[in-house]
């Protein structure tokens, strides 16, 4: 589980792509996340390519491979990328940690100051501002978990003041199977969903647009090689089956959810749209930001299949998670998004490895490109809440914005912007870029 630091993590490394060396860049040479893009100027018929973010640019890996600019070490990764035709990362995800690490090392050496292939690679750079993104992978299946005990407790208090947490929460990672077809890459625009809701005073449900639209700040977990049907992935092998992490906004229609979620969980309240960030940050890039994972001594300790010394030593990640809101009025006035909350992935009650292991313990097979959602990531402080449902206390306490507007839930035209990064003195900043989504009015026909 513990991924050793190597030369790619050295804080003193500098790239010949000058923007990667700027303080505050999400994409220094120590990061090198993967995504799928195409040049906007070439139109909708142009081919998608796999790329790596470096500073404010993208290194087009297909151009690099065709030019023979890589060393021979990442041969498997190069073959996988060529076989995929540039449309997704699935073939690369299907490999193993050694192949991913070899490709990352070759990329790092090629992009460093003094690289002998600099002149060749310069022709393969594309400005990020000039591209559009596709989903990083073809997502076959999507499972959303519920890993923040602070979120679960806050939500539980709104509906079950006497028993905020259900008895199983601290024993088992809770999750539900979501809809992969409506996952899109940001920036995304989508319509306010329609569905059944039941007003408290009504005898029967009504049909119409959701009135309580919300976001959920989550971390997405992309599965790598996976497992065969009937097999299980042991806890200390779980992260060898994780390609990387992204940001995930699991949009939620809270009033539809309240009416439908019992007895089988969310359905139309969640299946209309989910947005992920374009870049997948590898676990290797995040190795300097690992933390010990712990469980309060007063809480039930994980069952043996969900517990190990290695997981406790370094199973958590120190990743800051920010949510900001830009209303339509703010956008028209050229005002930037306003921060609503700042939390951290280290507060997650269940680790990435525990989610993978629990998902497979009954024999469920995970496949390359499958996506797991962490569930809303909220911290212990009110300002660390990862949803409007928490921040507004179920709609009872409006959030005041600096331009004079207020919100309890999202209004048409609102854009939610999420960012994440890992950063400490003496280490390179590892950023996730930006995820944004805009709520449009409900359809009328």
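-> sequence recovered:
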């Amino acid at each position: 589980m513990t991924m050793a630091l190597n030369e790619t993590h050295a804080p003193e490394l500098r790239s010949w792509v000058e923007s990667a060396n700027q303080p505050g860049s999400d994409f220094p040479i120590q990061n090198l996340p993967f995504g799928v893009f195409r040049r906007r100027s070439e139109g909708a018929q142009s081919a998608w390519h796999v790329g790596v973010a470096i500073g404010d640019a993208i290194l087009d890996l297909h151009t690099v491979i065709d030019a023979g600019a890589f060393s021979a070490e990442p041969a498997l990764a190069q073959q996988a990328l060529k076989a995929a035709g540039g449309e997704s990362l699935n073939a690369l995800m299907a490999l193993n940690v050694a192949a991913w690490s070899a490709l990352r090392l070759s990329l790092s050496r090629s992009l460093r100051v003094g690289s002998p292939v600099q002149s060749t690679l310069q022709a393969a750079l594309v400005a990020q501002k000039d591209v559009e993104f596709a989903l990083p992978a073809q997502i076959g299946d999507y499972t959303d978990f519920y890993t923040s005990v602070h979120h679960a407790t806050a939500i539980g208090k709104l509906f079950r003041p006497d028993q905020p947490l259900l008895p199983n929460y601290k024993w088992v990672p809770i999750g539900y199977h979501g809809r992969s077809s409506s996952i899109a890459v940001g920036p995304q625009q989508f319509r306010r969903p329609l569905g059944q809701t039941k007003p408290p005073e009504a005898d029967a449900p009504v049909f119409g647009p959701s009135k309580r639209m919300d976001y959920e700040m989550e971390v997405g977990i992309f599965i790598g090689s996976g497992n065969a049907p009937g097999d299980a992935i042991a806890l200390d092998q779980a992260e060898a089956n994780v390609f990387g992490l992204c940001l995930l906004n699991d949009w939620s229609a809270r009033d539809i959810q309240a009416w439908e979620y019992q007895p089988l969980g969310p359905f139309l309240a969640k299946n209309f749209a989910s947005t992920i960030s374009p870049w997948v940050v590898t676990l290797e890039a995040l190795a300097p930001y690992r933390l010990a994972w712990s469980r309060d001594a007063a809480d039930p300790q994980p069952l043996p299949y969900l517990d190990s010394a290695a997981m406790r030593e370094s199973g958590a990640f120190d990743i800051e998670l920010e949510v900001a809101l830009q209303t339509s009025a703010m956008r028209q006035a050229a005002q930037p998004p306003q921060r609503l909350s700042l939390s951290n992935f280290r507060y997650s009650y269940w680790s990435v490895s525990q989610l993978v292991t629990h998902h497979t313990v009954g024999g469920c097979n995970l496949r390359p490109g499958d996506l797991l959602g962490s569930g809303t990531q909220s911290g212990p402080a009110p300002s660390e809440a990862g949803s409007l449902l928490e921040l507004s206390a179920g709609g009872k306490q409006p959030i005041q914005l600096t331009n004079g507007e207020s919100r309890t839930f999202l209004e048409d035209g609102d854009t939610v912007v999420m960012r994440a990064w890992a950063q400490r003195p003496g280490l390179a900043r590892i950023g996730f870029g930006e995820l944004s989504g805009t709520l449009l009015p409900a359809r009328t026909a």
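The chain has eleven helices and 26 strands.
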